[in-house]
């Protein structure tokens, strides 16, 4: 047998081999790792913004959904929207369940009650998707201790307490192996929601980036422990989302932070954020992102977190690590301009 000698044949074979190799490492051929039809899913922060969009998306794909937030009025409005989606689906998914639970998740006992109520109404939790959170941007020196505590409660404890309770429950019973004869996937999951702000230092997010980075660190550690229990752990890291929360935070956002965000980040619709995050999770991504810029930022801080598409992501890390030096300098430049305009605090009336 003689080896192909024509340059065209060699060229085409090389391209095909590279395509197959990249596709395998980038997960194009991998199967959907998170089917949702028929799964019992708790979504927190689901009365508005990203959480509501996640709940609607999961409902449209046939999941049983329990939504959790504090304000019963906002919950009722979200309930009507989600129920309408389920009703429209009734012929395809006849037994879909929807539970609505009002709870302040920043307290452990409320988180435990919320899970108990959710399981009573929709069944044993298979997926927990934590979206509850929020930002109170400002300057560190201007915050009261209560503002810093609010950010930690709203973003960190609101996710940690419920995840802790759900993992205790999940590990006290086996996954429902009989339930999915067609796709055979019984993998259970915890999904947190962090932010692009956990990857990029941004003046004005000092109360927020800590709890969000903590969720990412928790994800890495918990992912490893959860190998013991066959539970997967993810942490979504979206950029700005066009949500009621963003409108509120923009009321107190320092101008310098607004300028940096306007320059770098195009806000996305909650529906798009939900869709991209789900797609990334279905490809097996531990830190789902929703934009190219967030993907670039993630690549510089991905560290030991598993990468989907190791070769490409590692090349991206090398390139973006250099790029980030210049981007960070540009952001520092915005802050230095602000200093020039305002002067130092002890030299003027900002005390
Ligand atoms: N908007 C943005 O630009 C970005 C947001 N994120 C993150 O994405 C997630 C969704 O953001 P977004 O769509 O703006 O959300 P919103 O601020 O619009 O909504 C927050 C949701 O969480 C609920 N919630 C807040 N605190 C608690 C609590 N203590 N207990 C229970 N529920 C609570 C709210 O309901 P209620 O107040 O009634 O309890 C609401 O349903 C958040 O974690 C946010 O930090 C990440 C990147 C960018
Ligand atoms: C290699 C180059 C990488 C460049 C990265 C630059 C990214 C800067 C823009 C960051 C915008 C932050 C959005 C998060 C907003 C948020 O979480 C709040 N709105 C929460 O409510």
Give the SSE layout.
Elements: H1 7-26, E1 40-44, H2 49-60, E2 64-69, H3 72-88, E3 98-102, H4 108-122, E4 127-130, H5 145-170, E5 188-193, H6 209-225, E6 231-236, H7 244-252, H8 255-264, H9 270-282, H10 292-301, H11 310-342
Parallel strand pairs: 1-2, 1-4, 2-3, 4-5, 5-6
The protein binds NADPH dihydro-nicotinamide-adenine-dinucleotide phosphate and 3-Dehydrosphinganine.
Transmembrane segments: 6-29, 50-69, 308-327
Enzyme class: oxidoreductase
Protein name: 3-dehydrosphinganine reductase
Structural class by secondary-structure content: alpha/beta
- The overall strand count is 6
CATH topology of the largest domain: Rossmann fold
What is the ordering of alpha helices and beta strands? Answer: HEHEHEHEHEHEHHHHH
Number of helices: 11
**What gross morphology would you assign?**
globular
CATH superfamily of the largest domain: NAD(P)-binding Rossmann-like Domain
* Strand line-up in the sheet with most strands: 3-2-1-4-5-6
Number of domains: 2
